[in-house]
Amino acid sequence: MVLDVMKPLKHKQLLEYELEGFGIRLNKQPPNIGFKKKEKGGINLTALVPQSELDLEAVKSILSEYKIHNADITLRYDATSEDLIDVIEGNRVYIPCIYVLNKIDQISIEELDIIYRIPHCVPISAHHKWNFDDLLEKMWQYLNLIRIYTKPRGQLPDYSAPIVLNAEKNTVDDLCLKIHKSLQKDFKAALVWGASAKHNPQRVGKEHVLFDEDVVQILKR
């Protein structure tokens, strides 16, 4: 989200308000609330921690708006009414967001120092191309991706074209599938250099978890 650094909070609040209306939640995790409808038995509320807003009557009132009279609700943290409504609706989208504050060439160093402390923000100057490296690094982090470099036998690693993996699907097997399905069948072992290796190189199997910027050589049968 690109904002004018001269009016960042005003524009941020307006845009977030509009997105909230469409069920889009920025930089938030889905509420850790258990919700299960049932045929009978009424409303059963279990609060695992003390609640400052929701009690049984409040929960019943919210559920009645959706014509739900039989359900099990588990509150695993101090939840709000909005959190419970989001869970009941079940159609909310939770996505990461970077607030790009443009035109930092028009503010002082002291103001820039304050802006750097704002969560999820990256100050830049599009005109002067200032701080683009920080923005790219932050984008990579928020996309939750890792870069894996391949190394053909007897050659140097290819650093020009990394294979990009989701950070949650980052095993050697995932890498093989990304390169070509046939590698999964022909796979014998892999040699890994980098942060995930106990020593360089380390001979590993398919289940080995890779880290960002590891170098991998696939050994075929």
From TrEMBL:
InterPro entries for this protein: Beta-grasp_dom_sf, DRG, G_OBG, GTP-binding_2, P-loop_NTPase, TGS, TGS-like
The keyword Oxidoreductase appears for this protein: no
Positions in coiled-coil regions: none
Domain of life: Eukaryota
Record key words, sorted: GTP-binding, Nucleotide-binding
Domain TGS: 144-220
Domain spans labelled OBG-type G: 1-144
Record flagged with keyword Ribonucleoprotein: no
MF-aspect GO terms: GTP binding; GTPase activity
Pfam families: MMR_HSR1_Xtn (PF16897), TGS (PF02824)
Signal peptide: none
PANTHER family: DEVELOPMENTALLY-REGULATED GTP-BINDING PROTEIN 2
Name of protein: TGS domain protein
Species the sequence originates in: Ancylostoma duodenale
Lineage: Eukaryota, Metazoa, Ecdysozoa, Nematoda, Chromadorea
